[in-house]
Structure formats: C-alpha cells, structure tokens
UniProtKB/TrEMBL annotation, chains A, B:
Presence of the UniProt keyword Ion transport in the record: yes
Name of the protein described by the UniProt record: TrkH family potassium uptake protein
Keywords for this protein: Cell membrane, Ion transport, Membrane, Transmembrane, Transmembrane helix, Transport
Topology relative to the membrane: Multi-pass membrane protein
Matches recorded under InterPro entries: Cat_transpt (IPR003445)
Protein species of origin: Microbispora hainanensis
Leader peptide range in chain numbering: none
Keyword Transmembrane: yes
Length: 449, 449
C-alpha cells in the first residue's frame, strides 16, 4: 500500500491511472451484476444491462436501462451502492491527488495540505490527504443518511431496518452525485417534502463543490478575502447557476399541469430549486422530466454540460471552466490584454485549458449526438438530452437510454466512461504536460476540468 | 463622398457605422416592400412581412416568411435583388475597410493594397480598395449571370429576357450568399443539373471566401509558400468542411427515398456536394431539407454555425475562427505553451478573439433557441435549425420562420440582424480596442469574425 502511494506520487500519466482504476472496477461490477443473485427474478441480467449499470454506478452517472428498485435484488442494490461509493471516492481522491501533483509541479502553495511550497510531495502526504477525503466523504454520508433515515421512519412509517437501508443508499447516491434511486419515479413522491429534497440537494451541492473548495471553506469560511481564486469562482458560478436555473424553471413550468402547475407556491419553489440543483450532476428528479417543456430541457442540458465543481463528484466541464470562459470574454470585450480576476492575472495556460476542454467536450457531445441520431429514430430533443446527461454524468433521462438499441446502449456506456474520466484526465494531463512557462507577474492557478 | 471616406478612415467605432448603414438600408427596403407595387396581388404586404423580407435581403440571409416568386411583383423582386446587392457589397466593403484599419492599427503590412507599412491610410486608399471590391463583385456576378442565363435559355427554353432576369437575380443572390430563389422549391428542380448547381456553388464559395483571401490568391496563387496565415487557414478549413460535409450527406442520405435515394450516383454526388456548400452560407437547397434525416440537420447546423471566410459575404463565426480554435486545442494537447501555425506564432489577442466570438455566438444561439422554444410549440430539431440558420445568415429553413407567430418572427428578424453585423462588429471592435500589446516574436494577425 505504501508502495502504491509512492508510485502514484511519481506518476505523471494520470490518464493511465484513472482509466485503469475505473476500468477494472467496472469489469468487477459487471461480473457481480451478471450473477443470478443480483436480480430480483433470479434470471441473470444480460451482459449489456450489467455493463451499462456497472458503468453508470462507477461513473456516478445514474442513467439506467432497467428500473433499479424492481430489476435488482437487495444484493444487486448493495453492489450498485458499493460501486457508487468506490467510483465517487475514486474520483474525489484521484482528482485531489492530481490537483496536488499539478500544484507541486507548478510550484504553487499546495492549499490542500500544510506542507511548504518547496517540500516534495511524498507518499505519506498523499495518504494523509486521501485519508481526509475519505473521512470527509463518510462523515457527510453518515449525516445525510441519518436525516433521511429519520424522515423515512418518522414521516413515512418505514420500519427502522428498511428506513436505514433507504437512508444510507440515497445518502451514498446523493453525496456521490450518482442519482440512483430505489423508487421507479426517482424522488417524485417527495417533491413537496423539504426534509428529503433539501437534504438531498445539500448533499449533492456539497459533494459536487469539490474537495479543495470544501476544505478551504471549512478552514477559512469567515475570511472570504483570503479565499483562493478557485473557491471564489466555484461559489459565484454555482450561486448564479442555481438561482438562474430555479428562476427559469419557475417561469417556464409555473402553469404546466404536469409539473409545477398543481403545486402551491412553496411546492413550486422547492421543486424548481431541486430541479435546478440536480443537473450538477446528481440526476434525481422530483418532477417528471419527460413532461417538462422543451425549453426547460434545453436549460437542463446547458446546466448538465457545465456540471459542478472541480475535484468533486460532479461531472461536466465544471463551473470553474465556465467561470474562466466568462472572464476571458469579459476581458476581451473591455479591450484588456490580460485576464484579471480579483487582483490576480489568469495564466494563459489556464485559459487555454478551459478553452480546450470546452471545445473538446462540445465536439464529443456533437459527435455522439450525431451517431445516436443515425442509430435511433428519436428527435434531437430526446437524443441531445440523453447524450449531455451521459457526458455530464448526470443521469437525468427522457427515456432514450432504456429504449435504445444495443449499439446505442454501448455508445452511451462509452460516453458515460469518457464523460467521467475525460475532463479530469485531460485537465491533469494538460497541466502536467505544460512546459516552458514564463514568470512575469503574480499568477494563480485554477483547476480546469 | 470624399468627406465620407475621410470620416470612415478616422472612424474607430465600427459598430456604429455598420449598424447605421444596415439599419437605414433595412428601413428603406421595408418602406419599398410595403408599397402595393411590390406585391403580385397588389395588396400591400403587412409591415412585419416587409420588415422580415427586407432584413433577410440586406443581411443576405434568405429566410423568408412568404414565397419570393409568388408573393412579390417584379418590382418587389428587383427591390429584393437591390437590397441583396447593397447588403452584400456593404458587408464586403465595410469588412475590408475595417480589416485595413485593424491592420494599420496593429502595424501589420496591409495585404490588401500596395501601401507601405508606415504610410497612413487615407480616404483615397480606402476609395481605391472599395473600388476594387465593387469591381470584383460586379465582374463575378456578370460571369455567373451569363452562365446561368445561357443555361436557362438554351437548356430550359426560357425566353431571352426572362432568362437574363433569372440569371442575373440568381447570380446576385448566389455570389452575395443570399439564397433568395425565384422558384418555390429553391433550386430543387436543378438538383441533377451540374451547370446550374456547380455555377451557383462556385459563386457561393468565391463570394464567401472573403476579399482578402480572394485577392491574395489572384496575386500569388502559384506561390502557396507565400500565402498569409489567413489564406492558408481559410482554404484548409474550407476544403475540410466541404469534403467532410459531402461525405456525411452521402452516407446519411444515400438511401433516403425523399432525398438522395432515387438519384443515380453522379446525381447523389452532385446533390451532396451542393448540400455541403450551401450552409456556408448561401442557403439554396437542391434537396428537400425538411425530408433530410435529423442527423443531417445536426451536421448542417454545425456547418451553418461556422459559415464561410472572413471579410466576405458569408456569415457564421467564420472558418478562420474554427481553424484557430482547432490549433489552440491541438497545441494544448501537445503540451506546447505557444500556439504555432506554419512558423508563425498565433497572437494571444487572436486566440482570445476567436474564443470570445465563439462563446458569445453559442450564448446568442442558446438564448434565442430558448426564447423561440418558449414561444413556439415546435421541437428542438426545428427551432435550433432555424435559429442557427438565422444567426449564420444562411437562410436554409425547415419551416419554422414561415409558421412562426409575429413575436417569433420579430425575434428571428433581430437575430438575422445581429448574426450579420455581430461577428464583424465584434471582431473589428475587439481588434481596435486591443491595447498594451507586447512584441516578443514574429507574430501574424488573423482576422476573427
Ligand atoms: K449522476
Ligand atoms: K444566405
């Protein structure tokens, strides 16, 4: 184990580490889910269903081709929960490790641990940081699980054992931004229940903010002036997207008889907020997505494409990337030759990383949308939604995945995998590869991807 | 007139010049098209139809809400042709003038005229360049008009007068990338006629390459090694998009009984090539767009969004911008700290301009798509196609514009206007505003937008 961390600390090929870890976990998950023990009926799931579900769980995606609650046995559900936990912890720890490596490489003060700038990162540092990440993850899940369990037992009369099971499963699923639910309608039955909805939303947001931001907030939440650029951008963009998304869904769906229409005003606000939180990138739904207005789908797609914070469990191009793009455009419109944010100059490397990640992501989404349109008889509305959902590891669905042909399901499986490991791999690889940097002015590095 | 050019030469606010010129022309056109003389029936067109058509003509867009051939009188058609000519010449000359201003400002060798680098650009220079642009435009239209007239008279038995009228109208419409046609089915009846299709395609490509590229080719087409970066990027990206588009349409539509299906192999190739040329950004069609596969729509949308060359009659973000983005991503993937293209380093200013233009364009298209989805009951497939077509001044239609509510038509009118003057305005404004530039290495400027 010591050797493993020492190796990781030397590793300059994040792509290989990440691909291997996720690939092997998915294969193991597929084998387990293919067993007759894993299904409720006792008839083994076919390999594609097992592969799709295992990939979706490990990549904390949440897209499904079968209903989780009715198709899988309790054993199958536990396998899924474990895969989610491994996938979520894996992405958080690997992202954190690579963030450290990048920080070290770029000679920046490593914010995540206490070591001095010049000290070489070693296996013991990594282990300590990873330990903190795991502890944080488990603590949050315990808190969320407790609240949900209490609500299920006290509010809905579930037996204690069943309530605990439901509470823990959905705590794991929400904190890791996975979005698997044990009800066929996801969380629609709780649309008006603030206990469930706000707890899940909080878990999703905290899990998706990313470890560096969460730990900086914990250390110095009362001194915003000392926050790093990463934290400031992440929080600002997150707040804007959540507020904007809530507002748009309120406006568009207010009178829709199949979504917000029948609810009272508190219910409308709660459901619109929940619907705005889920695209980043949990994928539960408390409204019937298929009945939402096409314009709400478009907004959801944009939110899913952006996703959440860097080095967390969220997917997408990340709110940091969107923030950087906005600052680049803003500086350009003002005719400034440098992109300055809060007394810091954004490095050219960070700018180019943000641009490259975004361009490649758009190209990837366009390519998969094209191929799926060729393969499937469905409209762009449906296909684009599902493709962005697979790319952004969101898992919201308008029904394309479950109705898709085997070839299309294989493609979505691939996209879930690439959407999960692509941005992180790319971001770390790009940052580590960066060479020939100049030092002119105080600069600050921001994680992209 | 002399005074006018002297003023333009001093002008540092391209946005104001362009907006004024285009706005005034559109208002004049709307007044003329509102007259009872302009319609075939003698009943004056309503103001929105007149405004939409005038905007579409001046912005060389080609989207229509009424059939051009049957709704308008000969007088109306001539007004449309004149508006196209004014709009096309306007965009070409203004783009050229601003290119010169930008070149002067940036201290680059002005490629478009013979003046030395240090010489101050004055009214007389501008007049000479504009004269060359106008002469070139009229010469090309005369050649294209002659070929088309001969074909209509000799091949289809049109009387000489009518043939000349049709030939000139479609020469103006194609060279200026306008896409207005005098047949209700656009050019579908000529789908298998290489004389018409290849002539129109050639006019569209040459008109859309942009004046700087065309003149550089004319001067030194036998010495590719001396071509500027702008010319090399424009030609390469153009070739890739045309070949790629042709291939995609061949593959996707080969067996479609309503498009390529019934044709022989030569016909298929011709129609696929024509369909690949038209999104940049002429907007004629020889296939029934509404019957194409949704995946072909997606590819068409991407091509329309990109458009053609800078400082020509084409719209979109321009092939140059796409080329720059590709080079930025490529350099980033190779871990290079500079973006080098063919022994030249791309300026940071050009990179940021390309990124800003693209981001703003995507935001614009997303915003208008959202609003139109809210306003209209149609699917994303249809709305996105029409919005991108309006933005890219392409004018290909899947029927949304003609069926749209007045509010939606007003929005599309606005988008046609912004899509036409936005990229040029933005590109020139950004380049002129740029300040505090450093000079480190040989750099070369590329026009973005
Ligand atoms: K998810
Ligand atoms: K056009």
């Amino acid at each position: 184990m010591k050797l493993f961390w020492a190796m990781v600390a030397r590793f300059n090929q994040p792509a290989q580490v990440i691909t291997t870890v996720f690939g092997v976990t998915i294969i193991l998950g597929t084998v387990l889910l293919s067993s007759p023990l894993a299904t409720a009926s006792g008839v083994p799931a076919d390999w594609l269903t097992a592969l799709f579900t295992a990939t979706s769980a490990v990549c904390v995606n949440g897209l499904t081709v079968v209903d989780t609650a009715t198709h899988w046995s309790a054993f199958g559900e536990v396998v899924i929960a474990v895969l989610i936990q491994v996938g979520g912890l894996g992405i958080m720890t690997l992202a954190t490790v690579f963030t450290l490596l990048v920080s070290r490489r770029l000679g920046l003060r490593a914010r995540l641990s206490a070591q001095a700038e010049t000290r070489v990162l070693n296996g013991s540092d990594l282990r300590r940081v990873v330990g903190k990440v795991v502890l944080f993850n488990l603590t949050c899940e315990a808190v969320v699980g407790t609240v949900l369990t209490l609500r299920f037992v006290l509010g809905y009369g579930e037996p204690v054992g069943r309530g605990l099971y439901l509470g823990l499963f959905h705590a794991v699923s929400s904190f890791n931004n996975a979005g698997f639910a044990l009800w066929p309608d996801s969380l629609m039955r709780f649309a008006a229940d603030p206990w469930v909805c706000l707890t899940v939303a909080a878990a999703v947001i905290v899990g998706g903010l990313g470890y560096p931001v969460v730990f900086e907030l914990r250390r110095s939440w009362r001194r915003p002036s000392r926050w790093s650029l990463l934290t400031r951008i992440t929080l600002t963009v997150t707040a804007v997207l959540l507020a904007g998304g809530t507002l748009v869904f309120l406006v568009t769906e207010w009178t829709n008889p199949r979504t917000l229409g029948p609810m009272d005003e508190h219910g409308k606000l709660l459901a619109a907020f929940f619907t705005a939180v889920m695209p980043r990138s949990a994928g539960f739904n408390s409204l019937d997505i298929t009945q939402m207005h096409p314009s709400s789908w478009l907004v959801t797609e944009l939110l899913m494409f952006v996703g959440g914070g860097s080095a967390g469990t969220a997917g997408g191009i990340k709110v940091t990337t969107l923030g950087l793009l906005t600052f680049i455009v803003w500086a350009e419109l003002r005719g400034e030759s440098r992109v300055n944010i809060g007394h810091r100059r954004l490095t050219e490397a960070a700018q180019r990383q943000a641009v490259s990640l975004t361009v490649l992501s758009v190209a990837l989404v366009a390519l998969f949308t094209y191929v799926l349109l060729v393969l499937s008889p469905q409209s762009l509305d449906h296909v684009l939604f599902e493709v962005v959902s697979a790319f952004g590891t969101t898992g919201l669905s308008v029904g394309v995945a479950s109705a898709a042909s085997p070839a299309a399901q294989v493609l979505l499986t691939l996209l879930m995998f690439v959407g999960r490991i692509g941005p992180l791999t790319l971001g770390s690889a790009l940052a580590l590869k960066e060479r020939g940097r100049r030092y002119e002015l105080p600069e600050e590095e921001v994680i992209v991807g």
